[in-house]
C-alpha cells in the first residue's frame, strides 16, 4: 500500500527513485549458517572420537560396561542372601519369604517402564541413570541399616527392610532400560557390527558381576560373624559400596558420552495419537476414503513421522507377546529347580556345590564368546541371518528321636546334647550335616548306654531314631549332577534369546523411544514371573506334571513366535530420520520459493 501511494503522488524524478527504492520489508529466507565450534563442543567431540585400545569402539562404553558390572554385583549380591535374611533374621515362614521375594523381583521388572518414561520424555538417559542410581544407593544403605540388630526392634528391621527393597526396586528397575540404550547411543548408525558386539559384552558384564557376587556375599554372611550371629549387615553393605562405585565410574565418563536429549512427553503423544486414530476410525462413514492402516486415521492431527514411529513400536511389542513364557521357564532356576535340587543326592558333587549355584552365570561367560565368534559366523556362512538366577544351598537332612525308656535320655550327635523325653515323646526335628555317625554317645540319669551306630545320614532324608535307625523318607539316589544338562541347555537358550533380544529392541526402536522399547522387553520378564505364580498357586499340579505343562507351553510358543518372526520385516530407524529430514527440508525450500515468487510479483 505504501509503494502504490508513493507512485501515485510523486513526480517523474520521485517516481524513478521510488521504483529503485527497496521495499521496507522482504521475505524471510533462511541462509545456511556456518557451523562454529565452541570450546565445550570441540572438547566433547574429540572425547567421543577416542577409541578403546585401538579398536573401533568408543572409549565411553568402557565406563558403561564397568558401571553395569558393579551394579549387577550390587543387585545379585544383595538378592543372594535375601531369602535367608527373611527366614533366619526376620523369622518369617517359608511361604511369606517366598511371596515377598517374588514380589520384589516382579517390582524390579515393572519399574523399567517408569525409568524409560523419565529418560525419553523428561531428563534424558544420562541424568535418569545418575538420579535413580542415587535412589538405588539410598535403598542399599537403608537395607543394610535394617540388618543391624542394635537398630530398633523387629518391627523397625521389617520397616527398614521393606523401604530399602522398594527403593532398590525403583533404582535398579529405573536404570535397567536406560543403561543398555545409552550404551547403544554411543555408536554411529553405520557401526552395526560394533553395536551388536557391545550388547554381547554388556550381557557378559551382567553375568560376571552375578558370578562374583554369588561367591562373595554368601561368604560374608556365613563366615564372618558380627553381633554374635551371621553378618547380614556386612553382606548387604558390600553391595551398597559396589553401587557407589558404579555411580562414581559412570559419572567419571561424563565428558566422553554422546548424550541424546529427550524429545518431550513422547508417551503422552503416542497415547493421544492412538486414541485419536481409534476415535476417528469408529466415527468414519462408508463414504470416507479407506486407509491402509488404522493408525492412518490420525493423520488429520498428528505428523506422519509420529504415526510411522508408533507403527514400528507396536509391531515390535506385538512380537513380544509370546516371549514371557520363556522367562516363566527360565526363572524357575531360583524356585522349582532349587526345590528339585534339595531332593537329590549331592554326595559326589559336594565340593562343587558353589559352582552349581552359579552355573548359569558361568556358562553365560563361556557361551557368549563361543556364539559370537564361532556359532554365529558359521551360521552366517549358511546364509542364515541372525541379527540369574541362583540355586540356594539346599537344607541338610532332618532327624528326631523317640525314647522307649521310662526316663529322659541325652544323645550327643554334636557337642550340644539332644534331650529325648521318656514314654515315646518325639524330640524336636533338627537339621544335621551329611556324615557317618558310627559311635553316638547316649546317656541317661541311671547310667551311660552303649554308643549308637547310626551309619550314613544322607542328604534330603528325614530320620526317626528309636532303638534302631528307621528312615521315614528315603534319600534320593539321583545325583544332583544330572541338573547340569538342564543348566547347559537353558543357558544356550538364554544366550540366543536374551542377548539378541536386547540388540533387537534397540535396533528396531525410533531414536526417541529406545528406552521405552527396552522397558517393553524387560516387561516380558515380569509377566513371565506372573505366569509362574499363577500356575504354582492355582494349578494344584504335581511337580512332574507342572514341568511337562511348561515344556508343552514353551513348544507351542516357539511355533507361534516362529510364524510371527517369519512375517516380520526389519526396519532401519536411521533411514526414517533421513527420509523425514529430507521431506521437511524439501517442504521448507518450496515454501521459501513460493514466498520469493510472490514478493517478486509485488
TrEMBL record:
InterPro entries to which the protein is assigned, alphabetical: MFS_trans_sf, POT_fam, PTR2_symporter_CS, SLC15A2
Subcellular localization(s) per the UniProt record: Membrane
GO cellular component labels: membrane
Signal peptide region: none
Keywords: Membrane, Peptide transport, Protein transport, Symport, Transmembrane, Transmembrane helix, Transport
Residue spans crossing the bilayer: 73-92, 98-118, 130-152, 158-179, 200-220, 232-251, 312-330, 358-382, 516-535, 547-568
Protein name: Solute carrier family 15 member 2
Lineage summary: Eukaryota, Metazoa, Chordata, Craniata, Vertebrata
Gene, per the UniProt record: slc15a2
